[in-house]
Specification:
By secondary structure, the chain is α+β, with helices and mostly antiparallel strands. The chain is built from ten helices and twelve strands. The strands form two sheets. Strands 1, 2, 3, 4, 5, 6, 7 and 9 form an eight-stranded mixed beta sheet that branches. Strands 10-11-8-12 form a four-stranded antiparallel beta sheet, covered by helices on one side. The longest helix has 16 residues.
Length: 297
């Protein structure tokens, strides 16, 4: 997360993420699944501009939007930005307002954490703009009530293991830079529908070996350890995801996988140059939104 103050306005650039590993460990009493996941930040950013308002209104407007994003993206309570702002106001008792402009580039319904990243940026941004002075520990408590990935984006580590619903974050070391080509198909995925179709593994895979490989920079070893327990049910539910994975596997990438509950898929490449070359090639095939991006450093 990158912050820049200009006059009364604060600009926050907040990244997307990919899940290199996601395993289901069991069902929880609250209806969610206990999981273990490896999240890695990648250099694809949404930009939010926060300006304190003279009234008590919280207004969200669209700035620029990336190609392929829907025209009817919500600016009301359905948007995590508004929910995060109102949660922060309710928690602190402030009646301050804000004008928020969102420049959207991270695909929606993609499993890349765009909504969660925007919510985290809102907590951090308004905490500063409204001069609330809340410590990061308090923001983490609020973040956990908004969504499973929001805590990851608050600290914006290069990579971290997420446990519980994904909100319990432990940073991990990453040596070097991982280059990716990312394809978000035209269709999205319903997280609720995906989880209704999952089956718990009898012997869950361990995340430990992948964490070790990331810390030593063994990219080819990392490629062999990619895993997402949600990928199989999504492939059954969404033909676009199946086609996208098949197309990526044909591009001579080290490995291909799906992030989160979909529908975005990624190929781990041998170099930044290869990722850019493949992205240019796939952009002409009308598969959806195509990006090349690297892990953050």
């Amino acid at each position: 997360m990158r912050l820049h103050q200009q006059g009364r306005s604060l600009t926050v650039e907040t990244p997307a993420k990919l899940n290199l590993f996601l395993e289901l460990l069991g069902r929880r009493p609250d209806g969610y699944h206990e999981l273990e996941t490896l999240l890695i930040s990648v250099g694809l950013y949404d930009t939010l501009v926060f300006t304190p308002a003279d009234s008590d209104q919280i207004e969200l407007v669209w700035g620029s939007r990336g190609t392929g994003l829907p025209a009817d993206l919500p600016v009301d309570e359905r948007n995590l930005i508004i929910r995060a702002a109102r949660l922060l106001r309710q928690h602190t008792g402030t009646n301050q307002g804000a004008h928020i402009t969102l420049h959207k580039r991270i695909p929606v319904e993609a499993g890349m954490g765009g909504g969660s990243s925007d919510a985290a940026a809102t907590l951090v941004g308004l905490n500063r703009v409204w001069k609330l002075g809340l410590p990061m520990s308090e923001l983490h408590n609020l973040a956990a009530t908004l969504g499973s990935d929001v805590n990851f984006f608050l600290d914006s580590p290069v990579a971290a293991v997420g446990r519980g619903r994904g909100e319990q974050i432990t940073p991990v070391d990453v040596r070097g830079v991982l280059p990716f080509v990312i394809v978000k198909p035209h269709s999205g995925c319903s997280t609720a529908a995906v989880f209704r179709h999952v089956q718990l593994p009898s012997a869950p895979k361990s995340i430990t070996t992948l964490c070790s490989a990331l810390g030593t920079g063994q990219t080819q070893h990392v490629a062999k350890l990619l895993h997402n327990a949600l990928q199989a049910p999504v492939v059954d539910l969404n033909v676009d995801v199946a086609l996208t994975l098949q197309t990526l596997q044909q591009q001579d990438v080290l490995a291909a996988g799906m992030t989160g509950s979909g529908s975005a898929c990624f190929g781990l490449c041998r170099s930044v140059r290869q990722a850019r070359t493949i992205a240019r090639r796939l952009s002409s095939q009308e598969l959806g939104q195509v990006f090349s991006a690297t892990s953050l450093t």
